[in-house]
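Service request form, structural biology core

Requester: graduate student, group of Dr. S.
Request type: structure prediction, single chain
Budget code: on file
Notes: please return the result as structure tokens.

Sequence provided:
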Amino acid sequence: MGILNSLTLILITLKLLGVIDWNWWIVLLPSIIRYAGMLFGLY
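Core staff response, request fulfilled:
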């Protein structure tokens, strides 16, 4: 499991527990970065 996957899981957990009150797109941003990197062949 990479750093972006771990960060995504941590942020989702914090969001669901109500610790952070961020928008979902910010919480899912590490996954968006990972998929964009896969799309452009960086990962």
